[in-house]
Design brief:
60s Ribosomal Protein L30, Chain: A; Phosphoribosyl-aminoimidazole Synthetase, Chain A, domain 2; four-stranded mixed sheet
């Protein structure tokens, strides 16, 4: 079974698709009402985020577009200090998409939501034209025989190449809602103070390398790091750690996030190359292709800026969690000064300083 235009028409085919693919996997009392809007308990402080996912390929080592959509949205909520509670999801389906593919994606979304304790409470489905099939090339006719005492046979015609059928794509938009406990206060990117420590939750570049490997047909052991990060903020706040700012490190990479923080706070950030965790397989991959892990996308890593005197305690908390076991203190916040070469600087392995600025241009399109 494949997706057809009728599946987006709002009639019997639409209802059948919703029942077969979505209702059984996202089942909860709120969604089961099948109303045009979900009514849920509220909070005095609500965090809301929305995101769209267009990753290519749909399936990659360590995940797929569905897992990515749920984890990415949950992580954006968590970085604001919120406890994620609800998700809505909109699906743009192209004609020709196999329903079995959609089912696998939705199953991954349901599993990721269950892991994070989040309910998917509303959604929408639209169907658009699929990718156009590629027609085969026209055959070449043979030459005409030459008459004579003994005729010369003409050459045989050459068949055209076979046409390639189009396959439907899949795009997902998610909106997330979370509740922020009253006692949680985060200054944000503009609240960094000289002396603050920069904590990174784990290895850089895994997702970027996994996607690129899949596109290039490179066989290796690299897996995407797509995962929910809600455990880290919850544990830090529960321990009384003063968190100045948090951010998941996605498109643009670590260097871009730190540049935004440094500019917002009017400070300088210095990080140490020797302390930045990168998986050996990813480091080797980067060496072959000339990539820099500091500018590569991730989908399950975050930085937390904390008060200097609590840095070691925060690191210990981080490393006790599965999503933070490779965590490290990678640098500190400094005052501005004429001796600083940039807002963000990398202390290299040989002791020099390398200026780091926000990513310029396109890193890797359709990575999330």
């Amino acid at each position: 079974m494949i997706i057809k235009t009728a599946h987006g028409a709002g009639g019997h085919a639409t209802a059948e698709l919703i029942e077969r693919v979505f209702a059984a996997r996202f089942d909860n009392p709120i969604l089961a009402r099948m109303e045009d809007a979900a009514v849920v308990p509220g909070s005095s402080r609500i965090a809301i985020t929305t995101d769209s996912f267009v990753v290519t390929p749909l399936f990659f080592p360590g995940g797929n577009i569905g897992k990515l959509a749920v984890c990415g949205t949950i992580n954006d909520l968590a970085m604001s200090g919120a406890i994620p509670k609800y998700l809505t999801c909109g699906f743009i389906l192209e004609e020709g998409l196999p329903v079995e593919t959609l089912e696998k994606v939705v199953e991954s979304m349901a599993a990721a939501a269950r892991e994070a304790g989040v309910q998917i409470i509303a959604g929408d489905t639209k169907v658009i034209e699929g990718k156009t099939s590629v027609e085969g090339t026209k055959g070449v006719e043979g030459t005409k025989g030459v008459e004579g005492t003994k005729g010369v046979e003409g050459t045989k015609g050459v068949e055209g190449a076979k046409g390639v059928e189009g396959t439907g794509g899949l795009y997902i938009n998610t909106t997330g809602v979370g509740f922020v406990p009253e006692e949680r206060e985060i200054a944000g990117p503009g609240g960094l103070v000289p002396g603050d420590a920069i904590l990174l939750s784990g290895n850089l570049g895994d997702h970027h390398a996994a996607i690129l490997s899949a596109r290039m047909g490179i066989s290796n052991e690299i897996q995407s790091d797509a995962q929910p990060l809600i455990g880290i903020p919850d544990a830090l706040f529960a321990a009384g750690i003063r968190v100045r700012a948090m951010r998941d490190v996605t498109r643009g990479g670590l260097a871009t996030v730190l540049d935004e923080f440094a500019r917002a706070s009017g400070v300088v950030i210095e990080i140490r190359e020797k302390d930045i965790p990168v998986d050996p397989a990813v480091r080797a991959f980067c060496g072959i292709l000339g990539l820099d892990p500091l500018y590569m996308a991730n989908e399950g890593k975050m930085i937390a800026v904390v008060a200097a005197e609590q840095a070691e305690e925060a690191l210990e908390i981080l490393r006790q969690l599965p999503c933070g076991r490779d965590g490290a203190i990678i640098g500190h916040v400094h005052e501005t000064g004429e001796d600083k070469i940039a807002r963000v600087a990398l202390r290299t392995g040989i002791g020099g300083l390398r200026a780091l600025r926000a990513l310029s241009g396109e890193g890797l399109p359709r990575i999330c």
